[in-house]
Amino acid sequence: EPVLVAEEEEEEEDDGDGDDLARRFLRLEREQSALLQALPPFGEPVSHVYHPLDYAWKPHCDFVRRYCRTPKRVLFLGMNPGPFGMAQTGVPFGEAWHVREWLQVVGAVKKPPSEHPKRPVLGLNCRRAERSEPAPHRAAPRPTRPVDGAL
């Protein structure tokens, strides 16, 4: 049965700053997430399925509201939603350090209903990194946020 973000939580996250694009994007993500969760469960050998848009909704919303405020021409290459990336933070990049320190995303991450013992969700405190990510000391400069929040 799908676990949806509570309506109260959406209202709490809606700061009413006129950010229509981000609001529409988040609404579409919730709808798509509900459709995915309504699919029949996987069978063996899959033992755990994580839904970061449920348990990491707050940092995900912070990311969207910060960086998805205006239309952009963007091409994402090599997205890695692995166990030490989006599964930890709700942000579609491969390392919690970049999300926390570089993008300065904030928000509490809850525990998923079922965690694999070798892949616990530590949220923005996760110290592990996806193997494809560069070390933090080789990271690009911190993004600047113009007044309208666009990169």
TrEMBL record:
<keyword id="KW-0378">Hydrolase</keyword>
<feature type="compositionally biased region" description="Basic and acidic residues">
    <location>
        <begin position="127"/>
        <end position="136"/>
    </location>
</feature>
<keyword id="KW-0234">DNA repair</keyword>
<feature type="region of interest" description="Disordered">
    <location>
        <begin position="1"/>
        <end position="20"/>
    </location>
</feature>
<dbReference type="GO" id="GO:0006284">
    <property type="term" value="P:base-excision repair"/>
</dbReference>
<dbReference type="InterPro" id="IPR036895">
    <property type="entry name" value="Uracil-DNA_glycosylase-like_sf"/>
</dbReference>
<protein>
    <submittedName>
        <fullName>SMUG1 glycosylase</fullName>
    </submittedName>
</protein>
<keyword id="KW-0227">DNA damage</keyword>
<dbReference type="GO" id="GO:0017065">
    <property type="term" value="F:single-strand selective uracil DNA N-glycosylase activity"/>
</dbReference>
<feature type="region of interest" description="Disordered">
    <location>
        <begin position="111"/>
        <end position="151"/>
    </location>
</feature>
<dbReference type="InterPro" id="IPR039134">
    <property type="entry name" value="SMUG1"/>
</dbReference>
<keyword id="KW-0238">DNA-binding</keyword>
<dbReference type="GO" id="GO:0003677">
    <property type="term" value="F:DNA binding"/>
</dbReference>
<dbReference type="GO" id="GO:0000703">
    <property type="term" value="F:oxidized pyrimidine nucleobase lesion DNA N-glycosylase activity"/>
</dbReference>
<feature type="compositionally biased region" description="Acidic residues">
    <location>
        <begin position="1"/>
        <end position="19"/>
    </location>
</feature>
